[in-house]
Design a protein that fits this description.
This protein has a 3-stranded antiparallel sheet, with no helix packed on it. It has a two-stranded antiparallel ribbon with strand order 1-4. A two-stranded antiparallel sheet has the order 2-3. A hairpin with a 2-residue loop joins strand 2 (17-18) and strand 3. It has 305 residues and is mainly alpha-helical. The protein folds into 2 domains: 2-10 and 24-111 and 128-227, no CATH class; 255-304, no CATH class. Helix 9 packs parallel to helix 12 (212-230). It contains 15 helices and 7 strands. The structure holds iron/sulfur cluster. Residues 146-152, 175, 205-208, 210 line the site of iron/sulfur cluster.
Length: 305
Amino acid sequence: MTSPASPPERRAPAGDAHRGRPRTFPEAARLALADTQLRRNLGHATATIRRRRGEAVGELPDWEELREAGRAIKERVLRHLDTYLEQLEASVERAGGVVHWARDAAECNRIVADVVKAHGQTEVVKVNNGRSRVLADPVGRQTLNCIRCSACLNVCPVYERTGGHAYGSVYPGPIGAILTPQLEGLDRAGTLPYASSLCGACYEVCPVKIDIPEVLVHLRGQVVGHKRAARRVPDPEAATMEALAWVFADRRRYELAQKLARVGQLPLARSGRVRRLPAALAGWTEMRDAPAIPAQTFRDWWRRR
Ligand code: SF4
């Protein structure tokens, strides 16, 4: 923390109070999707920004090299953050400022209050706000490379339809979907890693090459792990996934399952597709069909060559 120049980082507007708790992303997204004017405005704005960004990038023959350089610079800074923070301290002191270090929010608040009482309201406050924890995660730490350019927002099909408020944080869009859960915890923001189709457009445009889909999948894995740890009886989806993992882990089990499924699908498959699965599996085919198991699999074909 340095004195003197700008206000502390503004905390998220904490999502909307919803029956005594913040709205989850699906709840907030449903409200946004019902607002046709909002969707029209967002569609127009994001399409315009996407086009202009594309034109600007098209003028740069070395765009990919620049992206790689940006990634490398940010990673180097994060690797040597302690050194750079001390350099910042030295620069501020050379300029006549005073630097205070705080271990936690309570200590920070106390110091700020004392400084304000003594010197008035011109402070620079750099807050960690959980970022050390993010830095400790080998997959999640790339999130901290973000330069807040917003390119990922304007290419995201989810953001284009829901807008920023649905994310319940000052960090909307794909970057919000990975940063907010890491800063606030999966208990508060555990639905955000699912606010993505994993299409990869965010990664393609990110000027510092943050692999947002990789972090989304990583966080989804943590959400599933937490749920599994909290559950005494596995739910049907989890039980199905565990059974599939067991089948896929062994070639003979996998091939036997294929044979059984080929027989089991007979009343369901038409023209190579299964359009409606029965009972507990029906949800899978509510929005999509599934390819039928072919009469001859690749393995069968390979053996008979
Ligand atoms: S495109 Fe990359 S740098 Fe820009 S806001 Fe998104 S994550 Fe951050």
